[in-house]
Amino acid sequence: MNNYDTLGAVYDEWFMENDKLFEAEYRAVLSLLDAGAEYKEIGVGTGIFAEKLGIREGVEPSEDMARFARKRGVRVIGGVAEKLPYPADSAEGLVMITVDPFLTDINAAFKEAYRALEEGGSFVIAFIDRATPLGAGYEEHKEESDFYRGATFRSHDEIREIAEKAGFTYVRSVQTVFDLANAAQEVKDGHGEGVFAVAKFVKKR
Question: Whole-angstrom Cα distance, residue 70 to residue 77?
Answer without folding.
Answer: 10
